[in-house]
Amino acid sequence: MFIRKKSIRPFLEYLAWKYDNNVYVPTGARFELFSDKFKKKNNSQEKNKVKMDLDCKTMFSAKKLFLPPREVLFEFGPDDKGNPIPKQAKMESRYTVLFGARPCDLNAIKYMDMIFKDDPYYTARRSNIIIIGLQCESPSLFKNCYCHYTGTFFTDKYDILLVKSRYGKEPVYLAKAGSIRGEGLLATKFFSYKGMGDTFEKAMARVRKSYEKSVQGKVQGSKPVLKAEGSISDAVIKQFAKDCYSCTACTSVCPTCHSFMIEDELDLDRKSGRRVRKWDSCQLIRYTRVSGNNVFRPTREQRVRQRIMCKFRYSQEDQGMMACTGCGRCIDVCNKDIDIFKVFRGNAESRQ
């Protein structure tokens, strides 16, 4: 199956119509809402669509679709006697389409699915998100990508996976379904079998050959080079701590960072309010502050170490896969150009 590049936007318009405009596409900085609604501008009709970019690595991942930066868990208010009681929990379950996410982000979703498998808010939202991924052609396609080190260059987490090819001189995307929902979408008029000599399997074989050439024997198949028992340099961690500003830019763009705080917000009447879950960061001193103003990780070195160990060791021990998917966003946004992969001796040299 394949879809022509010129048919991508009509396909997204169809999805926007089908799923009440809840379609997100990459735009360079982030995944933004695609819309086929019309707006009036200078007495003329102009389509209100974002400028989609399928040749970029977004600065921010699609994590907010699965774990919002701010989420109301439930509200509470006074009963007939004036006593505060909780109201029914709010669980968002509308259908949403995520289009154009790369394997690093798809593997991040796989990891988050394991972390939040028992969270009713996450699972209610996740169960209705349709994922249409886009395979990278090579590990060095984008700056600071380390997916070939973390074993996340390929993925099995998608409803549809697209890979670039050509139909004569025309650019197309070969497609494979990974779920029943994906098979249903491939049956629409936007996809076709006719006249295409190339296949998804052949295209992926070319990608795998490029992958193996890029890593130069440093990995076997799709297994990660970095293991839980691998050497993590204490000296480099100390240097990172000296360079780090604790600005939390790295944790903000990370597709798997899931630290959060829960707060109760009171309304002015002091009888009603809501319980809210918000993103937080393990790099902030407040994150481990408890009653009595005790802080478990008061030094920056302790907090930097926690992040590194969580990404590369604790996650493998607990979930069986790294919490780092090698997207390189933390390096992209760091004010001090800290390269997290330098903590490994011998097998995580800087990107050449």
Describe this structure in words.
- This protein has one domain (2-343).
- The model is unreliable at 38-46, 219-223 and 345-352 (pLDDT under 50).
- The protein has helices spanning 8-18, 63-66, 103-115, 120-126, 147-150, 180-186, 200-215, 234-243, 249-253, 300-319, 329-333, and strands spanning 2-4, 23-26, 31-34, 38-41, 44-47, 70-78, 84-86, 96-101, 129-134, 160-167, 170-177, 260-266, 273-279, 289-290, 294-295.
- The chain is of the alpha+beta class and 352 residues long.
Query: Strand sequence of the main sheet, in spatial order?
Result: 1-11-10-9-8-2-3
User: Distance N terminus to C terminus?
Assistant: 36 Å
**Total beta-strand segments:** 15
Uncertain segments are: 38-46, 219-223, 345-352
As a whole number of angstroms, the C-alpha radius of gyration is: 22 Å
Question: What percentage of the residues does DSSP assign to strands (E)?
Answer: 15-25%
| Largest sheet descriptor | 7 strands, mixed
Which shape, going by the Cα principal axes?
flat
Kindly state the mean pLDDT as a whole number? 87
Taken in chain order, the helices and strands follow as: EHEEEEHEEEHHEHEEHHHHEEEEHH
Number of helices: 11
By helix and strand content, what is the structural category?
Answer: alpha+beta
- Structurally, how many domains make up the residues? 1
Helix content: 25-40%
